[in-house]
Amino acid sequence: MTNNDITIIINTFQSEDKIFRCLDSIDSIYKVMVVENSNNSDLKNQLEKKYINVKCFLTGENLGYAKGNNFGLSKAQSKYALILNPDAILENNTIKNFLITAKKINDFAILGPAKQDEFSNEENNKDSKQVFQVNRLKGFAMFLNLDQFKEIGFFDSNFFIYLEEIDLCMRLKNHNKKIFLDKKLIIHHLGGSSHNESINFEMELSRNWHWMWSTFYFNKKHYGYFNSLIKVSGKLFSSFYKMIFFTLIFKKKEKKIYYQRFSGLMNSILGKKSWYRPKIIIN
User: Fold this and answer.
1) 179 has pLDDT over 70
2) Contact 94, 30 (CB under 8 A)
């Protein structure tokens, strides 16, 4: 197994505050593709000048997590791909350990670090094995065995952000593909901060809209329209009444947040695409 067996794909949007720390943690012997969701040619030039192993692609628009990573995966010519968030930082031996585990388990679809939000230390320690099988994992660090995706493809591009990795894991499991976590894989993830701090509120509005849109779409896709409608009905009424409440007491920020939640959910229920984009000027 050689260094050319892996391509690292980092999907970015307004992430200049984070991406350099991430890239500094990656050994220059590994090929990295940065998919920047803008026309920011200055960032492209900075990255490609500073890092000899980095190629930056400008998409010209905000594609989101699913489409952005699919864009990078379509250009990967290696055996494996590591999808990495720009707010993730690797330890010195992280990629080496990915490749060691990949060599031991030939038929895996995805490998991930064992320290993940939905798996507490107690749950991890119940399994004495270093590598153990799971049904899903978080999307901040996903090591893909690309041959395993020929049947089902990669991410569902209808998602803009949220639940697309869970959807992918469910599709893999439905095709009897294997997903593993490894206790030796250490990746430090800041979480929820892949973008610059200056756009926090706009990104908060976007997160609320897309979380609700994706929640209904995900459930509709896997469990049917009416089951999904029943499941989200509480969220729909709650967001509507809170939007009205914060309007009446002149809390503009809270009103905007709950309007976004209501709007995202209604758009998904009505079968509209995940169209909302944060109101940010893209260079």
Assistant:
1) yes
2) no
